[in-house]
TrEMBL record:
This is Iron-sulfur cluster-binding protein. Residues 301-331 form the 4Fe-4S ferredoxin-type domain. It comes from Thiocapsa imhoffii. Keywords: 4Fe-4S, Electron transport, Iron, Iron-sulfur, Metal-binding, Repeat, Transport. GO terms for molecular function: 4 iron, 4 sulfur cluster binding; metal ion binding.
Length: 469
């Protein structure tokens, strides 16, 4: 996907006029929000869990080097192998080398956002490997030749009719539109692929330092089949996903499903530790973990450390009015929504992803629902400030901000202009109660009318009431 800044606005405009996308987003948004709210209401200690999770994450990040070393030692003791990747290119090379060494032909994948982050699928296909996505959403977008548009619901931008068209083209037979029929069709198509796979690649929701285990959560069981039936299991995860103990992981699990899909818990929670042992009935012959940095160390050492608390639940984007209006593809990379608007500039560059921190109303809904209390609006403001101080902000916008600073730091001037502008706009919109066009505010009125402001400012009304009393 093209990350050049000017493309965001173009993609956003296209998304706003895409009828099918708007239909899909409308259906998904209400479900995510309502289900989460119901689960939170039933768990009286939810806010206490959020605070405990945020504090635990901060502790882990403060001692991340120690916990990563403990994790590597435990993985080695269990017969596995840990590989350290400084960036996406090194991560791809490590995985391709493993596949080449075991003479792999087919690779199955359970959903892993890190594999999307490092561009793994393209590299595997270019190397001649057959890649099969086994998560239902990922399978749908693989058939469509598209990227995920959501971190937990990759195909949320697709309507049921669009999925039916894709399955009819891929599987043949009669066109089926019932959800149960579509799920069954995917299950039948994928069943044999698990047994053909030489390598199974999954993500890791949490990495347990105490035991060297990787933990994944799914609702389809595809992760279990991916990692147990292939000869080689590769886990891809960011370095921040480590937690001290399995008990610590349960704290995050109590928050993850409730925040992500509005479930009390996921259908499957699977813990894997090393390769198959002599008395195991199944499991891989080799177990590898690729720990990816890719800019995370820079975040750890700087003012954006709190972003590394993220447990990838997607609650921030489910509640974001901007994401809800344009979907995930408009953001141009793997991570959309508020969390992507912070992560993408930090990983890919403030200049390439210039629009993302600025495409936010700073309404705060994302921070209020984040299960680990990431102050996303504060981080977005910091990114805007960094863009300004590094002269990345366009000259015209810098001039506007400089003018605003002159006004905002002089209360007498601010209130004088406020009174003048309010009276002019009130007069222009007196007949209809709204303004379809406002000089200098074309970007706002292009998609909506501006309600006519009151003729008197709040302060004028307040002073007037004080004088009356």
């Amino acid at each position: 996907m093209d990350l050049h800044s000017h493309e965001f606005q173009s993609r956003a405009r296209t998304a706003l006029h895409d009828t099918s996308l708007q239909q899909a987003l409308d259906q998904a948004r209400d479900g995510f929000v309502a289900k989460r709210a119901a689960q939170v209401a039933e768990l009286s200690e939810f806010e206490a869990l959020r605070e405990a999770a945020a504090q635990l994450k901060d502790h882990i990040l403060e001692h991340l080097d120690d916990y990563l070393e403990r994790y590597e030692t435990a993985v080695n003791a269990a017969g596995g192998h840990v590989h350290w990747a400084r960036d996406d290119a090194e991560a791809r090379r490590i995985i391709l080398d493993i596949c080449a060494r075991v003479d792999a032909r087919t690779v199955t994948k359970g959903k892993s956002m890190v594999s999307e982050e490092i561009g793994l699928n393209e590299a595997l296909i270019e190397a001649g490997l057959k890649v099969v996505e086994t998560d239902l959403g990922e399978y749908i977008i693989q058939l469509a030749g598209e990227a995920p548009s959501h971190i937990i619901a990759p195909a949320v931008h697709k309507t049921r009719e669009q999925v039916a068209d894709l399955f009819e083209a891929a599987h043949g037979g009669p066109r089926r539109t019932e959800i149960s029929d579509l799920v069954d069709a995917a299950r039948q198509a994928l069943r044999g692929r698990y047994f053909e796979a030489d390598v199974g690649i999954t993500g890791g929701n949490f990495l347990i330092a105490e035991t060297g285990s990787s933990l994944i959560v799914t609702n389809e069981g595809n992760g279990d089949l991916t990692q147990t039936l292939a000869r080689v299991h590769i886990v891809t995860a960011g370095i921040e996903r480590v937690v001290p103990t399995l008990h610590d992981a349960t704290l995050f699990l109590r928050l993850l499903a409730r925040s992500a899909t509005g479930q009390e818990t996921e259908t499957y929670t699977t813990v894997s530790t090393g390769p198959r042992r002599l008395d195991d009935l199944d499991g891989p012959e080799e177990y590898h973990v690729v720990l990816v940095d890719n800019g995370r160390s820079r975040m750890l050492a700087g003012p954006f450390r709190a972003m590394l608390r993220c447990i990838r639940c997607g609650a921030c984007m489910n509640h974001c009015p901007v994401y809800g209006a344009i979907g995930g593809h408009a953001y141009g990379w793997v991570y959309p929504g508020p969390m992507g608007s912070v992560l993408t500039p930090l990983i890919k560059g403030l200049d390439l992803a210039y629009d993302l921190p600025n495409a936010c109303t700073l309404n705060g809904r994302c921070a209020s629902v984040c299960p680990v209390k990431i102050p996303l609006p504060d981080l977005l403001r910091q990114l805007r400030h960094a863009q300004f101080t590094q002269a990345i902000t366009p000259r015209r916008q810098r001039g506007a901000l400089a003018a605003w600073r002159v006004v905002a730091t002089r209360p007498w001037l601010y209130h004088a202009l406020e009174r003048v502008v309010a009276r002019i706009l009130a007069r222009l919109g007196a007949r209809t109660g709204r303004l379809r066009r406002v000089p200098g505010a074309h970007g706002w009125t292009l998609g909506r009318d501006l309600p006519t402001p009151a003729a008197r400012t709040f302060l004028e009304c307040w002073h007037h009431e004080r004088e009356k009393s």
